[in-house]
Design brief:
The chain is 66% helix and 2% strand. The chain is mainly α. Helix 2 (47-76) runs antiparallel to helix 3 and helix 3 packs antiparallel against helix 4 (147-175). It is elongated and about 60 Å long.
Length: 187
């Protein structure tokens, strides 16, 4: 007897997907706020600014940890095949976008961590950064390249990927009528 192929993601994949979606959207919005705040960081900057910076760092670490878990889960539990109505070039593009998402979800926290020493060198008044309130945040070794530029560029790429992902899902759901949303909806 042949097994019926799965058409939906499993519960763990669904939970990780939506948790990551919330964190990533929040992080992208927070990152934009931080770019504005960074322009105004001074000796008189209040604790609220430091709280936002610390929140950004902690969310980045959470995204990194969850991304590694999600990637391991995806490798151990391959996703269901896309519907047959999805064109071959769309399947290939989806594979590329998923791969780039993982590069961004893992790479952005790493580039942020690597860029933090240069940020702190420019803003020594930013103090008291901690990891989930448990310990001082470990700093990366100072490196002579401007990694923070990669971090900023990566966040723009991540935003574009997020937009493509959402638009593709909407297209498949409403234009192609593949009911693709049901694959990733909690049951």
């Amino acid at each position: 007897m042949t097994a019926v192929p799965r058409t939906n993601y499993d519960r763990v994949a669904i939970i990780l997907h939506w948790l990551m979606a919330i964190l990533l959207i929040g992080m992208l919005l927070l990152g934009e706020d931080m770019m504005e705040l960074k322009k105004g960081i001074s000796e008189e900057t209040g604790a609220g600014t430091f709280t936002l910076i610390n929140l950004h760092i902690n969310l980045g670490i959470a995204i990194l940890i969850l991304s590694v878990i999600r990637l391991a889960w995806r490798i151990a539990n391959p996703p269901p095949a896309l519907p047959e109505t999805v064109k071959p070039w769309e399947k290939k593009l989806a594979t590329i976008i998923y791969g780039l998402f993982y590069v961004m979800m893992i790479g952005l926290p790493i580039t942020g961590w690597l860029g933090l020493p240069s940020f702190l060198a420019k803003h020594p008044q930013v103090m008291g950064l901690n990891l989930f309130g448990l310990m001082d945040f470990p700093l990366a070794p100072a490196i002579p390249i401007k990694v923070i530029i990669l971090h900023k560029l990566g966040s723009n790429v991540a935003l574009a990927l997020l937009g493509l992902h959402v638009l593709a899902a909407l297209k498949h759901q409403f234009v192609d009528d593949t009911k693709i949303f049901s694959r990733m909806m909690p049951r």
